[in-house]
Amino acid sequence: MNDRLALPMYAINRPATQALMQAMTTLLGRQNIVAQPGWPDDLLAHWQDERLLLSQTCGYPLVTQLAAVQLVGLFHYTAPGCAGPDYRSWLVARDKQATLADFHGRRAVANSRDSHSGYNALRFVAARQGITFSQLLLSGGHRQSLAALRDSQADIAAIDCVSWALLARYAPDELHGLHIIGETPCAPGLPLITAASTSAPLLTLLRATLHQLVSDAAWRRVCDDSLIGGFSPAQRSDYQPVLAWEASAIACGLPRL
Questions:
Q1: CATH code of the domain covering residue 172
Q2: In 3-state terms, what secondary structure has residue 242?
């Protein structure tokens, strides 16, 4: 039975994410679909779980490591920097007068090498300007990257604009002393996925449930608390820009940060 459900990517305010998962569980239950919400520690194993009913991943692992999963769609977020189903990263630093060019030869921090918003996007914009960094710190998460900037362990980071907006709402102290000094282009937002074994009728039901979640006034507050304004189905081909950004950086001579 496919029953695993989790939303690990934007769980900045746990009660808001818990309420969102509970709303999904309730709506699915009305269709006699049992969902078991959880908080996975090993994300890659969770995404590859044969019992996966619904989860959210990042576009970069989707196209590089998760060939077997099925794409359900993606939420539309209302955070500044988003445009419909697309999002971008903010370039963040302590010096609000700086530009990306000022960080040539300085220290960067990224959440992980398999992150589009923190790594692939930063590599793309840096490569286009011929910028290289003297050091790359891998922090393990956007919040940790921001902490590294605040503590002067690194000088610049690319931060998912939805994560930034959620932190501004729920943990503004974590942004203290930090400034948006630039941005990346838009890319498709974080994909919602299900296991390869999920049947076509169940996939259709999942999409209908997510449409109901974002459309029904009963769940408006729950969605607003997670900055969700809509939902649309998506195909793998929608995420080709993620690979194109990687290829562009390699062509510019920057295969790795």
A1: 3.40.190.10
A2: helix
